[in-house]
Write a structure and sequence with these properties.
The chain has 422 residues and is mainly α. The chain has helices at residues 3-34, 43-53, 62-73, 79-88, 90-99, 123-143, 147-165, 169-190, 197-207, 213-234, 237-246, 259-266, 268-282, 287-305, 311-320, 323-353, 406-417, and strands at 110-111, 114-115, 375-379, 382-390, 396-404. Among the domains are: 34-103 and 122-211, no CATH class; 217-321, no CATH class.
Length: 422
């Protein structure tokens, strides 16, 4: 055999071998590609998976559950048991963190043919468990010296809270409880170790993008309106309204309206209430003045529309007047957030100057209940901030938050114990 023929033969065998290996490895390539699909575009899907992965009894013992609650209140408590709990929760933790990077979140209460209503709202209970889990993991990171990682959890909580609250009024109440863990996580983390000016600047910049609780409420009000009117349309209430109109029960014009016209007609009370609310809140009024005006708006809306509108509109109206209950909770949540922002700025002043200011600088956020600066008191280990939640009767409830400043604590320990811990 000539050398040329030998080279062709060898080359042919090489080609054959490559093709054979490609066919053998093809199924493995397909499996590898199938195992890494594109990320979903709905955060709710990841939250539901996190709920499914969350350990339940008997995998999660009552001792572990109680340990988490105690650890969040006092991070010196039952640390070993909490670490054991968190080890079981890593899949759920990673899923919630991944969901926080997805902007869109739809919990599936509405669909093209109507609405599911609150059938799926049992997940709200599980959401509180996820929030506790995240808070415990964040505090554990802070305890282990991973301050930046722990503070990032505060941002995860903010997105988590917005995702939960962008639906119904009920969802808004759950969202408020989630946001409490955000401020608690940041407050606890800042007290563990001295945080740099760069990190505090980053944290402040990230938090200013947060959506306010008041803005979030109006989105929920829109959702409630769609749900209520969707129920009217797809539960055949429209037909009943037209029959009642024909019998003289409602204005006769409703009898000849199309479903879309009737839908638009029935939404007027809620739209009026919502627009009036936005106007009231945008005015330069005190908290107590806004609360008084809210109650009057509900009465005025009823007087204007109760005669000419069917019972479904009154159902919508009752949902909107829930604002008189929700608004104080939203303002309290904003007060907690503004207080946390104030604390971050004070930590930053310590990072830059080594000392706390004698009084709060004028540029810091104000207490939304009073419109005045938070009450501020320097303590041996840090500082205290307070605000007073007002009620329409003129009474108030005091809320006090204590902050430990590690740099100041170290100075005090140095003075009391002496250099080198002697």
């Amino acid at each position: 055999m000539s050398s040329g023929s030998l080279q062709v033969s060898i080359r042919g065998r090489q080609v054959f071998l490559v093709l054979w290996l490609s066919l053998i490895l093809l199924p493995f390539n397909l499996v590898a590609n199938a195992a890494a699909p594109a990320d979903c575009n709905n955060a709710a899907l990841l939250y539901f998976q996190a709920i499914q992965k969350y350990p339940e009894y008997p995998e999660l013992s009552s001792e572990e559950y109680q340990a988490v609650n105690a650890f969040i209140r006092d991070s010196t408590q039952m640390t070993a048991t909490v670490r054991q709990f968190l080890a079981k929760c890593q899949e759920s933790i990673e899923l919630v963190k991944a969901a926080s990077h997805i902007e869109y979140c739809n919990w599936g209460h509405e669909y093209s043919q109507g609405f599911v209503g609150y059938v799926s709202s049992t997940h709200f209970t599980e959401i509180r468990n996820l929030a506790k889990m995240l808070c415990a993991d964040a505090i554990m990171h802070a305890k282990d010296g991973n301050q930046k990682t722990a503070l990032e959890y505060g941002l995860v909580f903010n997105t988590f809270s917005e995702h939960v609250g962008n639906d119904s009024i009920l969802a808004q109440l759950v969202s408020q409880s989630v946001s409490v863990y955000a401020t608690n996580t940041i407050r606890t983390t800042l007290g563990y170790d001295q945080v740099t000016h760069e990190t505090l600047t980053w944290l402040h910049g990230e938090l200013v993008t947060r959506q306010s609780s008041i803005q979030s409420y109006f989105q929920s009000l829109d959702s409630e309106l769609r749900l209520a009117l969707s129920a009217a349309k797809y539960d055949d209430i429209f037909s009943q309204v037209k029959e009642d109109a024909a019998a003289g029960g409602y204005p006769g014009s409703m009898e000849t309206m199309t479903d879309d016209e009737l839908l638009s007609h029935m939404s007027k009370p809620i739209q009026y209430f919502k627009n009036y609310m936005k106007r009231t809140i945008s005015l330069d009024m005190s908290y107590l003045q806004i609360m008084t005006d809210i109650e009057q708006i509900a009465d005025t809306t009823t007087l204007i529309y109760e005669v000419d509108y069917p019972s479904i509109v009154q159902t919508c109206l009752s949902l909107s007047t829930a604002f008189t209950f929700y608004y104080p909770l939203a303002v309290r949540n904003e007060a907690e957030f503004a207080l946390t922002q104030t604390a971050i700025e004070l930590y930053d002043l310590v990072a830059q100057t080594g000392n706390l200011p004698d009084v709060l600088p004028d540029y810091l956020p104000k207490d939304p209940f009073s419109g005045t600066p938070f009450e501020y008191e320097i303590t041996p280990e840090g500082f205290v901030l307070r605000f007073h939640e007002l009620v329409t009767s003129g009474e108030s409830k005091s809320h006090e938050r204590t902050f430990i400043v590690p740099a100041l604590k170290e100075v005090i320990e140095e003075e009391v114990i002496g250099p080198g811990g002697r």
